Amino acid sequence: MVSSYIVPPNIDLKNLSSEVKGVNQIGEEVTANVTLEKPLTVFLNSAEIVTSMTIGDYPELLALGFLFNQRIIKEKREVKSVDFDEELNVVVVRTVDETPYEINSKKKIRTSGCALGTVFGNLMDEIDEIKLSPREIKVSILYDLARKINTTPSLYLETGAIHGTVLCDYSGPLVYMEDVGRHNAVDKISGWMLNNDVVGEDKILYTTGRLTSEMVIKAAIMGIPILLSRSGFTAWGVEIAKSVGLTMVGRLRGERFLCLTGSKNLIFDEK
Amino acid sequence: MVSSYIVPPNIDLKNLSSEVKGVNQIGEEVTANVTLEKPLTVFLNSAEIVTSMTIGDYPELLALGFLFNQRIIKEKREVKSVDFDEELNVVVVRTVDETPYEINSKKKIRTSGCALGTVFGNLMDEIDEIKLSPREIKVSILYDLARKINTTPSLYLETGAIHGTVLCDYSGPLVYMEDVGRHNAVDKISGWMLNNDVVGEDKILYTTGRLTSEMVIKAAIMGIPILLSRSGFTAWGVEIAKSVGLTMVGRLRGERFLCLTGSKNLIFDEK
What is the pTM of this model? Predict the structure, then answer.
């Protein structure tokens, strides 16, 4: 068994899935475990920020990581408290001072219908200033991480219909989060890093999802210089990865992959 | 070749993907086609509704289908014009009369930061009133549709990192849309149906994505009684599908599947 995990996948089938009766291809009655999915609303002080669909584990980390990855919160010390109300499915993150986001959104409230649209615009400006320090990595370590992750018991293996994101270092996977939304899984990792004062510069991020612009932006904001995925790339994801200096390896399956940015950081120690 | 398509996949690699140089697992230089992904902002009259990341084909259908699937527009005759500005990446949908959405959002502008959150809340009320008329379907037709779809040349086969949604009838696939966001692919189908006065009651919808609550809600609003996917289910998706009377078949791969709602409508003509 894989032993390097600080936070292994949360395979709490009782709370994160439900049993549903159905039939299979020959009409036999079967019972399937299906992933739960419920709305979680994040408040920043008194401002409602976003409602996401989530499996519902680690709501505090999800809220914290979302706000960090949107650059609404930049440091742990800005946060006064994080409270989850299970009945209302609401997380309230309170900060020591009013945030620029709240001040801006008061100004912008008549022009923008959607907070996320506004925030996304601001993010692109911030991304322009990120330059990740390059880290080399052996191809054998890529394979080792992928193999360890793929053989770890997870909700994905139990229920399907879920995305995983795994924070790793060079010795193995450390924190494995899963969610119905792939952005939630990476935001939970980010919340965990913020909470535990863990920096990204010597880490590797693995995602089961596609390497889209949003995934690349999140990795860059988390300060992680190497991003891996079993899935493919989008053009804008590649462009942003190039501009921030992210090494990005996709279509990593078995001992095959495609590296579209930062290939100079790969050490080909395997054939 | 498959001949039933009215709108086959748009494999316009020149406009929907870009060529990126990279390296493979043994360090060889390779060129990969990666999917484009760009922001598209939808305006309803003078109200900014949402910004989505999309591959960028059929922007007018995407805008129209999004507004229809959110129940902001309910009939084609409400629409006066749909204009796409390629330079700004903006679609403006103009209606004959002011919509309830615009009237409500004026009232709600101080309480809700995110239009989508609000709209989503309203959608759940509408969903409660939908009851789809059941349609029977032979298992052999499920296999036939899946086989035809999977062997159709598509962007997915060329670039990966993309989701597909296919409108079918009992004879075969009709309209095949793809997008980086799986919701966009289904919204483009919806826009096409609205534009061409096509009803959902005798159709089947196939998606490569997971059967989440949002996907089920969209199928129900489009009036389509049968939803198929190669991927898995979420619990809330199953619950909504049951309540609206949707027949839902997931994990449809080869000659295997799982039917979690509406199995009484399946005719097991294959073993």
Answer: 0.88
Structure tokens at A235: 């053009």
Cβ of A48 within 8 Å of Cβ of B259? The answer is no
| Residue range B38-127 in CATH 3.30.230.10 | no
ipTM reported for the complex, 2 dp:
0.84
The answer to whether residues A117 and B50 touch, using CB atoms and an 8 Å cutoff, is yes
CB pairs under 8 A between A and B: 199
CATH number listed for the domain at residues B137-267: 3.40.140.10
Q: Name the segment(s) of chain B with CATH classification 3.10.20.10.
A: 38-127
For residue A210, how far is the Cα from the chain centroid?
Answer: 12
B101-110, long-range: CB within 8 Å, 24+ apart, which pairs?
A: B101/B44, B101/B47, B101/B49, B101/B72, B102/B44, B102/B45, B102/B47, B105/A113, B105/B47, B109/A109, B109/A110, B110/A109
Q: How far is A174 from chain B (nearest CA, A)?
A: 24
Pick the residue from chain B with its C-alpha nearest to A107.
Answer: B110
Chain A, window 209-238: residues with a beta carbon less than 8 angstroms from a chain B beta carbon:
210-214, 231-238
Reported as a single tens digit per residue, the pLDDT across B124-183 is 778 889 999 999 999 999 999 999 999 999 998 888 788 999 999 999 999 999 998 878
